[in-house]
Design brief:
With 332 residues, the protein is of the alpha/beta class. Helix content is 31%, strand content 18%. It contains 11 helices and 13 strands. It starts with a strand and ends with a helix. 41% of the residues are buried. The structure holds S-adenosylmethionine. S-adenosylmethionine binds next to strand 5 and strand 7.
Length: 332
């Protein structure tokens, strides 16, 4: 059985937010230092419940990929033990496992993640200047994060992906520095368009489109497009003369909704059919699990919910007024 929406999109990629708490306060993600995570542990899905839902999506709905995100997924207690158990499900169902992290809590442990079965590691890093990094995140962690990136490359993540959210006037003057610094390594710098969430004070004049970012890269580096998978969100480019690659994620200026194969589960167990959806008519796994719903009933609810997925998300100005959305709760 497969999870197919009204526009015939087949879904096989599940992104799970392990927590809505984060140890960073990035200016573009949580600008008001909103205290999220106040919900308390009993309001989050337990690890056992998350394992049940991974098994359900893999065994019953033919899902192939799972990515953990947050908040910061690694602030959750016992998460390394949880990854060991996920490793067993990975083997059983042939899943690909991904993790998106700010990297702050894996210094000295990156190889362990690889051994436990994490296939794809995305590390967020928005500045290469210590003061700017601190200003953006609230933490003085840049030197250690650069060591974590070295560790990830040594551990064999192929490639290590670096997520850089580009905001005009904040870090757009570092675009070339990012490419220069990582171009000769097995590292894929991914420039991400700044997305509005209502809660993050997005402004059009802070926005740089992927074309503008690419044009800046091309002032110094020749790029050749690479063929990407049909559900890829990134536009990938080889840097001519170097082993590295750069990518652009154009969620706003050129959305990729028509090939979207992703669904999400927020930390409190809400099934979300789109990063930008409002959560209406969506399913809550915590409630279903705790009220004793059977797998068949849950799948029925999911199939109904997926039919509410819109063809494409609205434009940036509309999204910026959607005050009920918060990236830390949904999971990026
Ligand atoms: N804490 C983890 C991290 O820092 O990677 C995982 C969660 S974070 C919400 C996931 C990704 O979303 C990060 O790469 C972050 O930079 C990105 N992100 C957050 N807010 C964003 C925004 N408004 N526009 C674009 N990307 C954003």
């Amino acid at each position: 059985m497969e999870l197919i929406d009204s526009f015939n999109r087949k879904h096989d990629y599940l992104r799970i937010s392990l927590t809505d708490r984060c140890n960073y306060n990035c200016v573009y993600c949580n600008p008001n230092h909103r205290t999220v995570g106040g919900k308390g542990r009993e309001n989050l899905l337990s690890f056992e419940e998350i394992e049940r839902l991974i098994e359900l999506f893999a065994a019953k709905l033919n899902f192939k990929k799972v990515r953990f995100t947050g908040g910061e997924p690694l602030v959750r207690k016992d998460v390394f033990n949880f990854f060991s158990r996920v490793g067993i499900l990975k083997q059983k169902y042939g899943l690909k496992i991904g993790l998106t992290t700010n990297g702050s809590l894996i210094y000295g442990r990156v190889n362990e993640l690889k051994l436990k079965g994490v296939d794809n590691l995305n590390i967020s890093i928005d500045s290469l200047k210590p003061d700017k990094f601190k200003w953006i995140t609230g933490k003085d962690d840049l030197p250690r994060l650069l060591k974590v990136i070295d560790e990830a490359e040594k551990a064999g993540f192929n490639p290590v992906k670096l997520n850089v959210v580009v905001i005009k006037g904040i870090n757009d003057n570092e675009i070339l520095d990012f490419v220069e610094r990582f171009k000769d390594r097995n590292i894929n710098v991914r420039f991400i368009e700044f997305m509005p969430f209502g809660s993050n004070e997005w402004e059009r004049n802070g926005f740089l489109s992927f074309r503008e970012i690419k044009e800046i890269v091309e002032r110094k580096f020749a790029l050749a497009p690479l063929i990407t998978g049909e559900n890829a969100v990134a536009k990938d480019f080889k840097i001519l003369g170097s082993p590295g690659r750069v990518s652009f994620i154009s969620s706003i200026s050129e959305h990729f909704c028509s090939t979207c194969n992703r669904v999400r589960i927020s930390a409190d167990g809400t099934f979300r059919v789109c990063l930008f959806s409002r959560g209406e008519q969506e399913v809550n796994f915590k409630e279903l699990f705790r009220s004793g719903a059977s797998d068949r009933e849950i799948i029925e609810a999911l199939r109904k919910a997926i039919l509410t997925k819109w063809e494409k998300h609205p434009g940036a100005e509309t999204l910026s007024k959607q005050i009920q959305n918060n990236m830390m709760e949904i999971g990026g």
